[in-house]
Design a protein that fits this description.
Layout: H1 3-21, E1 25-30, E2 35-40, E3 47-52, H2 56-61, H3 68-85, E4 91-93, H4 102-113
Parallel strand pairs: 1-4
Antiparallel strand pairs: 1-2, 2-3
Helix pairs in contact: 3-4
Amino acid sequence: MNKKLARQRRAKRTRMKIRELETLRLCVNKTSKHIYAHITTFDGAKTLVCASTLDKELQKSLKYTGNIDAASAVGKLIAERAMKEGIKRVAFDRSGFLFHGRIKALADSAREIGLDF
């Protein structure tokens, strides 16, 4: 089993559990240069709130978009936007990525603002 297939299997397992719970889901995806986060319905049919390092607000303040500082900025931004929409509780979908580094930084900063998962 290669690295990509293992990540996809972890992602599928997590998404099936979230679908059973029928809660909103905070999906996170990362590349080497950027990190993306969006809150969707449990089945992924509709995106309610989104944030990424490609946002104009963040690009001005960040020197580099592929590090932990950028991930924590995205976490704060997604949590602030969710609070404006009235979303307080979500399930964290890390898309099969390990809860370490940039993924952990995003989650911790979103929790600091008040998002519950």
